[in-house]
Automatic annotation (TrEMBL):
Keywords: Cell membrane, Membrane, Transmembrane, Transmembrane helix, Transport
Coiled coil segments of this chain: none
UniProt subcellular location: Cell membrane
Name of the protein in question: ABC transporter permease
Amino acid sequence: MQTSAKPGRRVDSASADSYGPLYSFLLLLPFLVLLLAAFVYPVGKLLLTSVFSPGLTFEHYEHVASGLYARVFIRTFVIALTVAGITCLLGYPVAWLLTRVKGKIAFFVTACILIPMWTSVLVRSYAWIVLLQRNGIVNDLLLGAGLIDEPLKLIYNQGAVIMAMVHVLLPYMILPVYGALKAIPVDLSKASANLGASSVRTFSTVTLPLSMPGVYAGSLIVFVLALGFYVTPALVGGPSTLVIATLIGQQVTQTFNWPFAATLSTLLLLATVAVTVAFRRFMSFSGRL
């Protein structure tokens, strides 16, 4: 004897909650085609080009191990690590402030963070050239104040590259840290204060540890983006601060050495993947603690 379903109760069925393999594949097909055409095929061809030119060879990888190109790799990693550290030091206080203010002040701080992200990187890089060049605004102000006797060389060096990259990538640090800070319950800080902890102790024992996932995520995003930065180092740094992305561009557009450019791109890709995997393992290890 069959029993009828009660009114108002949802009747579960397999067709209502899931799709069969064929329908699932059809739904994923556009994404898979895009993934194959825009990522798998270019990366696969890149890997093949680096070792087949035209026969199987690893001479380009041996060439990278020479002193000049090894120094370029080291310089790129040092710049990326420095940029990640500076953005963390500058971005954390801004993110913390954004969680404490309200109204017009919060709107103003948010606008200061988001508006630079909507501006082209090329425009922001040229703005730093206007500021730091020999006859730029900074040198004019220093000369007018009598602090220097002749213009300083503030551009086309590693310091200018780091400064400009910090300016471009700072929002990518602020937003993850802000998300982590915003997720911390306010009651935890109040409970710490009620137990007699000072504001400094509350921050060091409660707020900072709970916000570290946002710090780690922001640091990873900034570090990976800085590894592949091209426009800013090319414009602000010049030949004296050659980085991997700029070197790859030179090999493609000037020397037309596609196999060597593919080798450099492959090594940069492997380094990025290695950093990401190490970060995930570190986060998993920290989570188990």
